[in-house]
User: What shape does this take?
Amino acid sequence: MSNLVALRQRKLLEELLKRENLDDSILNAFFETDRSVFVPRGFKNSANSLNALPLQAEQWISSPLTVAKMTKALEPKGADSVLEIGCGSGYQAAILSKLFRRVFTIERIEGLLAEARTIFKQLGLVNINTKLDDGMLGWMEFAKFDRILLSASIEDIPQNIFDQLSENDGVLVSPITVGNKQIITKYRKNRYMIVKEEVEECLFVPIQRGVSKLN
Assistant: This one.
């Protein structure tokens, strides 16, 4: 990491800490992950701002603050595997790769996933497993997951996704659409009991079904 990149990363951490209490492991994950690698060429100068930025196919890369809050809500400490539904640019998955031994991420838009895969390879993030598919199917081959993260908003979590969450203190975090609002919501699963906790309001694109080859 160059001195300039390190300086930008430290400034980003300072901005995050002004707004959210984050432990050292999450802060280190953000410091080691240069967001500018994941944003489109025309937005490189805004990469270390706290703004969401546009991607191809009418998708967005979330604000680093939103990514930090979602990551914190996941409670990564002590967990081994995480499933991300909605890879997008790959930035969230790259953060998770510093906190989990195994990361599984699904993306429905072929062009986005191709770009993310290229970046993961360039960065040597060998613990990220990717799949082009409808995210609402999950990834049964590797279930059950200690943690599940949805990176798009949905009204209700399908039962088949809950079924892929570990029954031993599994945690699922997702933006949930409630009326005209979206709320980051945490679900904790112990055996067959699921406890729901609303974290705070947010803004995400709605989840979509199927697979798209659009770039």
User: Anything to note?
Assistant: The two ends are 30 Å apart (CA to CA). The first strand starts at residue 53 and ends at 54. The longest helix spans residues 3-19.
